[in-house]
Design brief:
It is a single chain. The protein contains 19 helices and seven strands. It has about 500 residues and is mainly alpha-helical. The chain has a domain of about 220 residues: Glycosyltransferase (Alpha/alpha barrel). Strands 1-2-3 form a three-stranded antiparallel beta sheet. It has a two-stranded antiparallel sheet with strand order 4-5. Strand 6 and strand 7 form a beta hairpin.
Amino acid sequence: MNFPWIFLAVAALTVIVMATVVESQHDYGDALTKSILFFEGQRSGKLPPTQRLTWRKDSALRDGSDNGVDLTGGYYDAGDNVKFNLPMAFTITNLAWGAIEYGKLMGPDRVHALEAIRWGTDYLLKCTSIPGRVFAQVGEPYGDHNCWERPEDMDTPRNSYYVDTNAPGTEVAAETAAALAASSLVFKTVDPDYSKLLLARAIKVFEFADTYRGSYNDSIGKVVCPFYCSYNGYQDDLLWGAAWLFSATNYFRYWNYSYKYWNYVKDNLSNLGGTFAEYGWDAKHAGVYVLVSKFMLNGSDPFEDFVLNADRFACSILPESPTRLIAYSSGGLMFKPVGSNLQHATALSFLLTVYSRYNRRAGRVIDCGNGVTATPSRLLQVAKSQVDYILGSNPLQMSYMVGYGGNFPQKIHHRGSSLPSIDSHPERLKCQDGSLFFNSPEPNLNLLVGAVVGGPDILDRYNDSRFDFTHTEPTTYINGPLVGLLAFFKKQRFV
């Protein structure tokens, strides 16, 4: 493992820390409710009468007009006012997967989780309404990031950008197909007609993604980079889309696609071993392994490579494993040397709970080597330790979810949260008018309940400052996998 020295120094303490952690008593149900509520604070477009975060109002009602289409709706991805579709679609896929696995455990929150999914899929349907074209972004990011203003006041360019047959973008198209296919499973019984619409669109969008291959970096990189540039390529996105379409259809053409394309990936990726611990808006590898393993462990066509790599994923996360690929802070937090680190803690932990369940059903225990085994219970313990860390079981005894617990971030890097609401300040705030509030030492004026920030550094330190966006900015793709995690642990207090 080629971690920087600081990672090695703290990683040596990890096994001790995680082995002696005291059982926490967090209110996972309360955290679940708030984690879903967060998405209402990120909504773009015409807000419904049921909107619960009432300090947010209608915004971006002309999105898509520059291209003669309606692209209202969807989510702002983080603390800015841009709609980046690659991380948004990944977020929806994870919300849907959480509802598929754990929807029955959500209780009254399930209806709100489905509303959050549908707010995203309604937008993705609009983005894919023209055959041979997939809209990938709304909002000019450089102009947006130069302003600190409420989404309700935006006067920065709201250009819409798309990929098509002449300028393809396989990553965003394949992830959109995955989101639509996964969501079709969520709505299969509660709204069959909507489910069929989602699935039919997913099939068409995946066909486009596969037929017209190319990175969206090359097509619209001037606006997606460096914000959500694709550093990983699009092979995993195609596998991801095909896996979800097989899940939704049982059509063996998608199964065969996965089989054939997996061989292509193995032959063309020189560093495949480094992908075992990768799962996020850019790299989907571990998610593919875990998702496909479900069918392997249920006795389908014995395509063992996926199960083998899903096992490697589990061992790459386990703190005591000889093949561990990620670092842990001395306080026990999973850590990767990139911004918004809690996205990894939530996404990888969600996969651990899912793979634990699959293995428990199959009666399997994973051998990680050197006498280390990854039992289903051990995988859940690691996942739970990350959830508990986020909710306050950490050296600072600080919740990294806004509104949960008595000590949580007050000065998050988020425009709408930090600026006065329309109710309290109906006059327009122009581009630079928000600087006064950005620079203020006071807490944010509006509570973005349920928002989980980027989190502490490798030394478990956290600076509550709007200037430090790497650690204080919330994102939808941090919360996306967390919803399913919280639903699971709401019913599984002890693992």
